[in-house]
Amino acid sequence: MSREQSLVQRARKAFQTGKSKPLEYRLHQLRCLHRFITERRRDIADALKKDLCKSDNGTELFETMSLEGEINLAVERLAEWAAPKPVEKNLLTIADEVYIQPEPLGVVLIIGAWNYPWAITLQPLVGAIAAGNAAVIKPSEVSFHSAKVMEELLPLYLDRDLYPVVTGGVSETQELLKQRFDHVFYTGSGSVGRLVMEAASRHLTPVTLELGGKSPCYIDKDCDLRVACRRITWGKFTNCGQTCIAPDYILCEASIQGKVVDGIRQTLLEFYGADPKCSADYGRIINPRHFNRVMNLMEGYTAVLGGQSDASQRYIAPTVLKDVPPHSRMMQEEIFGPVLPIVTVSDMDEAIRFVNEREKPLALYIFCSDKLAVKKMIEETTSGGVTVNDVMMHYTLSSLPFGGVGQSGMGSYHGKHTFDRLSHMRACLVRSLGMESFNLARYPPQDRQRARR
Ligand code: NAD
């Protein structure tokens, strides 16, 4: 028996004892997870520094704060989320109890990605614990130091049988995927997402796929370009562009392209100084493979801003490209790096067509002061989520379901959405054995019914 198989079996056995079900137990584990984050803040930040050159501020803002927020919300609302929900009755059930009872699914497999290794791997875990499940946690091997800290320290805080951490790469993940789970929650690329779904289908296991894609950012000519550029620059170049909901490219009219470039130039100076390589706030590409991938994408372009790189540090400067052809390779695959192409369009209608001709994105960003035009663009496009006059901020709201649509993913989470996603909503009808006369109409023989009429 492989290590993965025995860990999954142990998690299932532990789940079957029923210990993960009582609300008190779930709350206790959630509080332990919170304690882990508070007490091990330094270990987490150090690991992220080694993996992605993340600043302490970046760790706080993008990893631990959202995680703590999700745990606090779950602790506060768990009783309400887990309570049976009475629903409407019909005439035949008027005297009965009719309700929906959320119940745990069983053993959940969580496969995380490397770009925000803590938030992405542990946020689904918050919902899994809250919903009363066991969960096998598989952090990405690509963010090696974070995975190591997670494997070594998390079991000191959480129940080791119910919530084991499995580290390793492709072969370990594939071994895990051979096992039977009750839900697989995967975050990463679409190509691996397909493999995950295929493996899960063998056991008829439902999946949540949090994938990526090219998230467009439209800038209308009549908006405050200074503010727009500052917000876009923040979202694009945070974590060195390795954010699933970073604006992938800009769509704008040719008449404002120069001003947009100027606005980004000014903001870059403000954020990272004259040489971003020396800034403590600017990250690095995760590994040489991704460094080469982004460098290859840039080949043949002359950067209007940035363009410098240093392979020894996996450094790529914040880079902006002008007048990028709509059908170039840059515009086919997700960039996932600090390169921001600008594609010009004649107006908002062309921008809408541009978005609709491509795969449904994970996020869409619209910078525009005309409320009617904003409504039109939202109505005539689709995406996992949309933020108007800012980027990425919809992610911070636990009340909004976070997830993709079409090629950018299936299923959503955050806050109660994670709890619902990882629960079975059991339909419950509890009748009494009385008032049998009301039921006679549905029983055979037909003749007796005719006679009664
Ligand atoms: P990755 O390489 O870390 O892979 C993700 C997970 O898949 C890892 O745990 C890894 O072990 C596993 N894996 C990799 N290859 C496998 C294989 N052949 N078989 C089985 N398992 C395998 O991460 P990535 O795929 O490079 O992640 C980047 C992508 O993730 C981007 O497209 C990004 O947009 C997307 N992403 C999406 C979200 C979201 O919330 N929607 C968040 C972060 C990243």
UniProtKB/TrEMBL annotation:
- Segments forming domain Aldehyde dehydrogenase: 7-426
Listed GO cellular component terms? Answer: cytoplasm
Q: Does the keyword Manganese apply?
A: no
Q: Tell me the keywords, alphabetical order.
A: Membrane, NAD, Oxidoreductase, Transmembrane, Transmembrane helix
The family database entries (SUPFAM superfamilies) matched by this protein are listed as: ALDH-like
For molecular function, the Gene Ontology terms on record are: 3-chloroallyl aldehyde dehydrogenase activity; aldehyde dehydrogenase (NAD+) activity
Q: Which Pfam families match?
A: Aldedh
Among InterPro entries, the record links this protein to: Ald_DH/histidinol_DH, Ald_DH_C, Ald_DH_CS_CYS, Ald_DH_CS_GLU, Ald_DH_N, Aldehyde_DH_dom, Aldehyde_DH_NAD(P)
Active site at 210, 244
Give the GO terms filed under biological process for this record. aldehyde metabolic process
Q: Which family does it belong to?
A: Belongs to the aldehyde dehydrogenase family.
Q: What name goes with this protein?
A: Aldehyde dehydrogenase
Q: What is the lineage of its organism?
A: Eukaryota, Metazoa, Chordata, Craniata, Vertebrata
